[in-house]
């Protein structure tokens, strides 16, 4: 299909499970103030208790959010995802019943799937000596459970796909949904991701890689400090986020509110190392997104960085931005919001895409929280520190997702006007 | 707690808008329990009574059939 015949894609709804409580706008208001949702999380339900700074969604009530019947049959990762999808659907002005279509689909991302169900099964077997597993085990664990439950609940008969690409999973689920709408395979797709990684085994696994920022009751909230001198890594977070992506004319015809246009998607593989990122691969992904969106570097007014606060990853991303944006880099506002909502692994790309959409729509840029002294190896861009920037005027924004395995995904959004 | 009371409590805790009381002729699907939900309920009742229903049992469609199924296997266990 030639470029000129590709269909444009509008973002018409956003939704998430908010770790602060409240709605999506409340969430954005909180991160604009640099508020952190990180606290010390104690996991005590196995024989090997563990405590880490992490982000949980304590006010999330699955029975209320998605109904008792559905919550009884689903893992927490699905519950978070279905709830986020429902919020985005509502935000797009679509009624919950009889608004589905065989031209609508789901595109979802998760790194692990039903981790809580897996862990409970193993604890039942190996600690409690049980010999049978719940008949729901398979359908709760499978990585397409969230997507399928969203499709069933909303009546979406088009493609229903799940991407598992580590920490780029839901940036890729959004990008691939964009491709499907562009090519005419769907008119509307619920795109996003969800993750519930706060199980004992997953927390131990990340701790073993020595990339988790540590802290106690008093210091946990500021444990994750991207680009900061002396940074020590990220904190895990649970949650879900979704966008409603819609073919432009379809959105206009039904009078939908359009937040912005998803105008470019770049995807690449470093093909260098499983865990050490590579500048060249990241540059290819960003350039691919900018080229498709027909954006010059100077037109980009905000980059939501992958920014995991690891000693190795942050400077490579900054070098990438300097390579792509050249002379504009020094004036380019950049922030890493994982400092506040944590690292949602397979759902990180979706929550950061949502933040980027709202930043563009509101012309406000959230900060990197707890960033006080930019490390020497992270200099060269305009780091947003303290509170967020308000009253900005910019035409486009980009969000980066750089995964273990070397898979990179970049989404470029353009304002409506 | 007898079997019907146990089922009633389970339904109240696991479905939206549960009925105040369950009639034996009530269809499980009309209460909001699809086949997966029925499987899970049977599993939890098996755990509770420490029984094991055979894999080839006829899946119940009504509350009455479910009660009969559980009652049928409870005495077997007691006699073992």
How does the overall form of chain A come out from the CA principal axes?
globular
Structural class category of chain B: mainly alpha
Average pLDDT, all residues of chain B: 88
- Sheet bearing the most strands of chain A, described? 11 strands, mixed
The dominant shape of chain B is: globular
Averaging pLDDT over every residue of chain A, what do you get? 96
Rg calc of chain A? 20 Å
Hey, roughly how much beta strand do the residues of chain B contain? under 5%
Tell how many strands the DSSP assignment of chain B holds.
0
Count of DSSP helices of chain A?
14
Q: For the terminal residues of chain A, how far apart are their CA atoms? A: 27 Å
Quaternary assembly: heterodimer
Radius of gyration of chain B: 12 Å
Largest sheet of chain B: none
Total of helices of chain B:
4
Share of helical residues of chain B: 55-70%
Low-confidence stretches of chain B: none
Spatial separation of the terminal alpha carbons of chain B = 22 Å
Strand order of the largest sheet of chain A: 5-4-6-8-1-9-14-13-10-11-12
Biggest interchain interface, per-side counts: A-B, 10 and 12 residues
What does this structure look like?
The complex is a heterodimer of chains A (417) and B (80). Chain A is of the alpha/beta class. Helix content of chain A is 33%, strand content 20%. In chain A, helix 11 packs across helix 12 (313-325). Chain B has helices at residues 3-14, 28-31, 35-49, 63-79. The longest helix of chain B is centred in the C-terminal third of the chain and has 17 residues, at 63-79. Chain B starts with a helix and ends with a helix. The A-B interface holds A 67-69, 72-73, 132, 134-136, 139 and B 13-16, 32, 36-37, 39-40, 42-43, 52.
